[in-house]
Amino acid sequence: MSVFIIAEAGVNHNGSIELAKKLIDVASNAGADAVKFQTFKTENLVSKNAQKAEYQKETTDAQESQFDMIKKLELDLETHKELIKYCEEKNIMFLSTPFDLESIAMLNDLGLKIFKIPSGEITNLPYLRKIGALNKKVILSTGMATLDEIDDALQILQDAGTKKENITVLHANTMYPTPMEDVNLRAMLTIGSTFDIAYGYSDHTLGIEVDIAAVAMGASVIEKHFTLDKSMEGPDHKASLEPDELKAMVKAIRNIELALGDGVKKPSKSETPNIIVARKSIVAKREIKKGEIFTEENITIKRPGNGISPMKWDEIIGTVSQKDYQKDALL
């Protein structure tokens, strides 16, 4: 099974279908498996008086309400259809995270095979129940969550009808960008072992090294924000990868997958010819006449490794030479 890489466009399209298509191009060119957007009705998502997060105040107009900021980033049904069609042309899976019940229904009607639950909805029982009842593949992000909260969410999804083997749980940290000391990548392994479930990592750090480490630790899904340009206006651009970084991340993950191998310790195909070159054999230390006894004075150990193995040293010492040997000749 290869790692499922989700390039998270999120709301980095800034409300423009042209930008959204450019993001799909970038994700497809980078070799990601899926490109993910966000689906919401602003009226269903945010109260008129809800505050922005601190990082959003820093990256957008601090005077603007969260409602007004998000309303500009909403994608309607027709836009979804157009983006899904475009993803098919670009041979990449279209995904989107629903943020309300209406959006879940819409994405289901559009035929999505995988439902991504964001960290903020892990304590939303009606939402979890509605997704669980679809019996689709589910990817559950767990930023800000405790093990008990993850347990509750998994229980709701399964009770509603989703099979456990269809759920992947992503360790995550809901801070953009996440400070390295708060990543706690070992918690991903705790999730996997506690719930005996497929696990992965949704990353909000700057750079790509944590994603690569997560894959080396067994992550089966990696999700990462990306943008066309970090300096663009909008809440998430700053903590996103630029196109060349996304490409580098995918390449590195694919290399790590190859490097992980099958776990069997044996000489590999590429190194086998070097056994003769790098290992040693028992050889004559000086000229030896037929009938001489082999001792530490007349035999030694040198390369190449295609003679008698030095592991047989104790068996050879004290035996009688059956022929004459030149110096350095293999026994």
TrEMBL record:
What biological processes does GO assign it? carbohydrate biosynthetic process
Q: PROSITE patterns of this UniProt entry?
A: AFP_LIKE
Question: Sorted alphabetically, which InterPro entries does this protein's record hold?
Answer: AFP_Neu5c_C_sf, Aldolase_TIM, NeuB/NeuA, PseI-like, PseI/NeuA/B-like_N, SAF, SAF_AFP_Neu5Ac, SAF_PseI/NeuA/NeuB
Q: Which UniProt keywords apply?
A: Transferase
- Any one Pfam family match given in the protein's UniProt record, by short name: SAF
Superkingdom as given in the UniProt entry: Bacteria
List, in alphabetical order, the Gene Ontology terms for molecular function in this entry: N-acetylneuraminate synthase activity; N-acylneuraminate-9-phosphate synthase activity
Provide the E.C. number(s) assigned to this enzyme. 2.5.1.56
First-tier enzyme category under EC = transferase
Q: Does the keyword Transferase apply?
A: yes
- Residues covered by the AFP-like domain: 281-331
* Identification of the protein by name: N-acetylneuraminate synthase
User: What is the gene called?
Assistant: neuB
